[in-house]
Amino acid sequence: MAVPTAIVTGARMLNEVEEGSLDEVLTSLRTNLSVLSAFPAPSTKESPQRFKSHGDPDLDALLDRNLRATQSATLQLTGRYLPLVYNLVSKLIAAPRNKAIVIIDTENRFDPTCLTAQYSSRLDDLHHVHVYRTPRCGSDHLQALVASVEAQMLYSRHESRGREWWGTIVIGSLSASPSASATASGPAMTSTRGSTAHVTASWKGWLRVDREDVERFHPAASAREALADRERRQVAVDSAGWAASCQWGGFTFRPEEERRQ
After folding, report:
1. Which residues lie below 8 Å from residue 63, measured CB to CB, with a gap of 6+?
2. Cα–Cα–Cα angle for 65, 69, 75, nearest 5°?
3. Main-chain dihedrals φ then ψ at residue 8, nearest 5 degrees
4. So which domain of life are we looking at (predicted)?
5. What is the DSSP string of 161-176?
6. Is 255 helix (H, G, I), strand (E, B) or coil?
7. Most buried residue, 4, 24, 132, 176, by most Cβ within 10 Å?
8. Are 35 and 44 in contact (CB under 8 A)?
């Protein structure tokens, strides 16, 4: 993509990012509560938690093991988590999954242009990534924000009503386990009280993301040998992918653009 074209595309995408303050979202929540009351109350009988498929067999296998051990279905990312967030979003919004996703970004770090520059996401699919930028807030306010966003996706008119709403990703704050699955075109099978993020990305999490390891210099290598091997090693570092790891195992991944090179 030529540089001028990339700049124009990036500017267009950023202009379409849906931003809102916490007060605006809470106001929307109060409005939607009257709509929620029209639906039957959900059953209070507990049902076993199930994690949402993230479109990656390796990741889903780790989620299954974590769920069995901890009874938590939430994917909690830590480390250099943004590349994995982009990877997940790009897979979920593209065919054949065609999901709608909400991003609540309290760090102002999620950049939608990375989805086209590194993962070749289509602009039509990006319309179904709903990004809310809000300052850091307490857990109660965050819970209310997530509940309001869920109510908006389920009961309000928006561009993604024709798609299944996959869930909410919170960047920069912690949350608890997810609510039941629901679609953007029908009523939820859970109350807003149980609304929580399906993915969290912050300083604390059970799945850590780092740069993929590359071969290190031999301990006995001299300075001259290291300098002679510098260019080859720099290429190896630049082409390294990303590694996600936890006590249950791990996997590696890389942006789509790098896989094609």
Report:
1. 51, 54, 73, 75
2. 60
3. -65, -45
4. Eukaryota
5. TTSEEEEEEEESS---
6. coil
7. 132
8. no
What secondary structure letter does DSSP report for 193? G
**Within 10 A of 42 (CB to CB), how many other CB atoms are there?**
14
Using alpha carbons, select from 161, 200, 203, 201 the residue that is nearest to residue 182.
161
Return d(Cα 89, Cα 154) in angstroms, integer: 19
Q: What CA–CA distance (Å, rounded) separates 153 from 78?
A: 27
pLDDT tens figures, 120-148 = 889 999 999 999 998 777 778 888 889 99
- Token readout for 25 is 């979202």
Query: What is the value of pTM for the model shown?
Result: 0.71
Q: How far apart are CA 211 and CA 213, in angstroms?
A: 6
Task: Specify the 3-state DSSP secondary structure of 39.
Answer: coil
Would you give the DSSP letter of residue 11? Answer: H
Q: What are phi and psi of 161, to 5 degrees?
A: -65, -20
Q: Which two tokens stand for residue 223?
A: 């300075």
SS3 258: helix
